[in-house]
Amino acid sequence: MEPIIQLKGVSKQYGEKEVLKNVNLDIMPGQIIGYIGPNGAGKSTTVKILTGVIQDYTGTVMVNGRDIRENLLGVKQLIGYVPELADLYDLLTPNEYLHFIGALYNMQDDVVTERAKRILDSFGILENFDQRMDSFSKGMRQKVLLTAGIIHNPSIVILDEPMSGLDANAVIVVKELLQMLKQDGKTIFYCSHMMDVVEKVSDRIVLIDKGTIIANDTIEALREGGNQSLESIFAEKTSTGDLNRSAGSIAQALHD
Ligand SMILES: Nc1ncnc2c1ncn2[C@@H]1O[C@H](COP(=O)(O)OP(=O)(O)OP(=O)(O)O)[C@@H](O)[C@H]1O
Fold first, then answer.
1. Largest Cα–Cα distance in the chain?
2. Which residues form the ABC transporter domain (predicted)?
3. Ligand 1 site, residue 43, Cβ cutoff 6 A
4. Residue 142 belongs to what H/E stretch?
5. Cβ(238) – ligand 1 distance below 6 Å
6. For 169, phi and psi rounded to 5 degrees?
7. Residue 41 in contact with ligand 1 by CB distance below 6 A
8. Which of 99, 133, 166, 183 is the most exposed place for a label (fewest CB within 10 A)?
9. pTM of the model
């Protein structure tokens, strides 16, 4: 089987600073990949490259066997992207916003309406279909963003902290949704800091630190036969310092 996403020697600099360093990564179709790393590791930069937002990188990114530099429009059809807390067009209703998104993908109006209503109904916010989103809570906005990211039925779904702001019921819906998308053969690229969720939903975990991939394996293999949580594996491998000491010095700072 060929990888559906392939990064070959991908590097990206902001000025002098190299934030991705020769990243090589193969992602096989039909898998849920948990993409994790400390703040500033390069996760969002990777996602921006995959979604065509950043183009001044070196190396090659192949999606479905084609170089994305040569097929950016095709790639955009294949990928659904759910950003974390994007600027929604607050003055629009979900109905208007999702039709706007659907039009970007050349979708027929009646298909957009049908899918939008069914997905929002599953999220429990169908009654808000025609309300302006400026009155929406964070979680309601996130549900609309999730809907917008999958409405064109993409083969690859990239999610950036999709659980952000969601209540417990919605988290369950999203977890189930991930499994259903997977059963449907879709590839999921899941970026998150919520280790307990990543650990449960991902087929593979890719750990990036300071622009370099330092682990790429199943959770079982990362545990090496032990029973550690992903959180402790993360802390060990990224060694961002003694966490107790960090907390201690923050607490001390309040008293000095
Ligand atoms: N537009 C920019 N200009 C300059 N530096 C940037 C820019 N965007 C990101 N960076 C830097 O690139 C590095 C990687 O950032 P990136 O946003 O990819 O990290 P991340 O892994 O997504 O972090 P987080 O978990 O905090 O979201 C960071 O050091 C960041 O400061």
1. 63
2. 5-235
3. yes
4. helix 138-150
5. no
6. -65, -40
7. yes
8. 183
9. 0.89
Q: Is the dihedral of CA 87, 159, 76, 17 positive or negative?
A: positive
**Residue 53 is encoded by which pair of tokens?**
């937002």
- Domains of the chain and any CATH numbers: 5-86+153-253 (3.40.50.300)
Angle at CA of residue 94, ends 89 and 96, nearest 5° = 75
Atom of ligand 1 nearest to the CA of 45: 18
- Answer for the pair 221, 65: CB distance below 8 angstroms, yes or no: no
Q: What is the β-pairing status of strands 5-14 and 17-27?
A: antiparallel
